[in-house]
Design a protein that fits this description.
With 177 residues, the protein is of the alpha+beta class. It has two helices and ten strands.
Length: 177
């Protein structure tokens, strides 16, 4: 019996027989496997920028191992130009995805009560418009991208809410002044 009470203690990485890996959560399993693979690439790093880059590398590996559970969406929200704000929504996979998309009054919010003048989807396919100019089901392009332009002539701030694989994500603000 060891000084640790006879229990096995893992000193050099995750023990894949216990913990979240065994919990039937594929996105966690992919992240754990990616973390193990990434250890082959770099030893313990010291600077914040090296650690940040290494974390992004681990996430990209996990997203490749389990693309249907890719961790997040990326939003490119433009500035208001002639009463219009363009937004691009990017998934972490280069394939079609189904997104539920809505305009919200705040990050973390539900459907807005204010209707914009127009919403034009230039990339992706509108499968259904659930609420006029506010709430959509969108199929991304085969590169995982959907793009829309919202126009409004008064002062207002909206956020895109996007649901993918049971998780909700929010863009930065679409600001109209």
């Amino acid at each position: 019996m060891s000084e640790f009470g006879g229990r096995h203690m893992e000193l050099f990485g995750a023990d894949f027989a216990r913990g979240p890996f065994a919990s039937s959560r594929p996105e966690i399993a992919a992240l754990q496997i990616a973390t193990q693979l990434a250890q082959l690439r770099a030893p313990l790093l010291r600077s914040d920028s090296e650690i940040g880059a290494h974390a992004e590398f681990i996430q990209s590996l996990a997203d490749k191992l389990m693309p249907d559970f890719a961790s997040a969406l990326k939003f490119d929200v433009g500035n208001e130009i002639l009463n219009a704000v363009a937004t691009t929504i990017r998934t972490n996979i280069n394939n079609y995805s189904l997104l539920e998309v809505w305009l919200a009054d705040e990050a973390g919010g539900g459907l807005t009560t204010v209707t914009p003048t127009t919403v034009t989807w230039s990339t992706g396919v509108v499968l259904a418009e659930l609420t006029v100019r506010k709430h959509y089901l969108i199929i991304t392009s085969n590169t995982g991208i959907a793009s829309a332009t919202v126009s409004y002539s008064l002062s207002k701030t909206w956020y895109w809410g996007v649901a993918r694989m049971g998780r909700a994500y929010y863009s930065s603000s679409l600001s109209f002044s």
